[in-house]
Amino acid sequence: MEPKWARPWFAATAAAVLAGLIIQIGVTSGDTSVFGGTPLGRSLNVFSFFTIQSNLIVGITTLLLAIDPNRSSRVFNVFRLIGLVAITVTFVVFHVALSHLLDLETWAEAANQLLHTVVPILAIAGWCLFGPRGLTSARVARLSVLFPVFYMTFTLIRGPLNADWYPYPFADVKTLGYLKVVINGF
After folding, report:
1. What is the C-alpha to C-alpha distance for residues 25 and 44, in angstroms, rounded to an integer?
2. Which one of 36, 50, 140, 161 is least enclosed by Cβ atoms within 10 Å?
3. What is the pTM of this model?
4. Stretch 22-43: mean pLDDT, rounded?
5. Mean of pLDDT values over 112-140
6. Which tens digit of pLDDT belongs to each residue from 81-91?
7. In this structure, are residues 48 and 155 in contact, taking their beta carbons and an 8 Å threshold?
8. Cα(106)–Cα(23) distance, rounded to whole angstroms?
9. What would the pLDDT profile of 144-184 be if each residue is shown by its tens digit?
């Protein structure tokens, strides 16, 4: 594909992330049946999901690529790899293990499709079509592994401090215990 399409592709990916997040926050803030607490508390709980964090990383890195498709620095390279791996995990885990748990309608389904399907496909296809390539080194790969480790640590610490609320059933320490959750995390 023509390199001239790289910027619009990356911009569209970032826009899809933004649209998905805005819709998700709007839906969540008004839905008292999920995530507990006040509308602000429910909105903030959205950010504890791996899906949201991976979408944020993809959104930021693709926005930066839309501005400068030749961007490269160690920090950017690490976040670009984190975003690509995390959004791929988001797509696979959602469609293989979690999608059957949801019965969504209207705007909730629109946010769900954007964040779990559209953005992952755009991000992965964008990388396949436009790169940028050659950003990964052994050090970048090692640093990118820290994200899921930090995420699981954050989730395990945050859950008990937040009335034993966990963003995913496979991370629910109260139900499964720490050993099973740690195994599930890997």
Report:
1. 8
2. 161
3. 0.88
4. 81
5. 91
6. 999 999 999 99
7. yes
8. 11
9. 889 988 988 888 888 888 777 788 778 888 888 888 888 87
Supply 81's token pair. 């790899």
User: Are 53 and 119 contacting, i.e. CB atoms less than 8 angstroms apart?
Assistant: no
Question: Rounded to whole angstroms, how far apart are CA atoms 8 and 180?
Answer: 43
Report d(CA 53, CA 87) in Å as an integer. 9
Residues with Cβ < 8 Å from 88, sequence gap 6 or more?
120, 124
d(CA 74, CA 101): 38
Task: Tell me the C-alpha distance between 36 and 40, whole Å.
Answer: 10
pLDDT at 119: 98
> Shortest CA distance to 31 belongs to which of 107, 82, 123, 85?
107
Which of 4-8, 29-33, 64-68 has the lowest average pLDDT? 29-33
Residue 41 main-chain phi, psi, to 5 deg? -60, -45
User: Residue 140 is encoded by which pair of tokens?
Assistant: 């970048």
Q: Rounded CA gap, 37 and 96, in Å? A: 30
Instruction: Assign 3-class secondary structure to 163-178.
Output: CCCCCCHHHCHHHHCH
Q: Who's near 133: CB < 8 A, 6+ residues apart?
A: none
